[in-house]
Amino acid sequence: MDKIAIISDIHGNIPALNAVLDDIKEKKIKKIICLGDLAGKGPNPAEVVDIIRAECSSVLMGNWDMMIAKENEFEMVKWAREKLGEERLDYIRNLPFSAEFYISGRLTRLFHASPQGVFNRVHSNSSSEKLLGLFDNTENTGSSFSEQKPDIIGYGDIHGAYIKYFDDKVIFNVGSVGNPLDMTLASYVILEGKYNGRENKGFQINFIRVPYDVELAIKLAKESNMPEIDAYINELKTGRYRGRK
Asked: Fewer CB atoms inside 10 Å of the end CB: C or N, the chain?
């Protein structure tokens, strides 16, 4: 079977990204897809963008990417834009919304948050109606395969990994590499099956958790003089949004 590593929400965290990429390389996986939010919240936006561009075969637009692509009065956005520089900002502006392909006969669609937009958040405990809306075809997603709706949905955004089944359809969230908010380990997914295969065969969705040097990430944040540093450090230490239980 072919293996695809799916990562998301790096948020400028170099130690976490390096740990995940090392794990992917140890598993001899060649194809990596990133679901967005390269920068914002963390101390190394430029370095993360450069690494992602070099290592990933596809990179999608996240909500932070969209915010950072335009001038904004939010202090973290202004700080990240200055660190990134115009060439990287131009790269971010042109990231696609979604990606589609077949895996073992199942149409798979990946995006950052939802087909309704990068700011439309869907949690694991959202209503069934909202969860099923993740399968919708919209102007944002378009479709490479006529009007067919996907069988498998993979997304990021909420920083918490999960999987749900609806009859023969599957939704999974990959969690976050650099800012996990379900536990303090970096998260990604390995999707296994026949890539671009139209024949109905077996497939797997495997969730991987990777330890990384949180103290180094905190040290880099302190050295960067980035905005909102205390909130960021609390999230890295606790694996909870703003350190809340």
From this structure: C
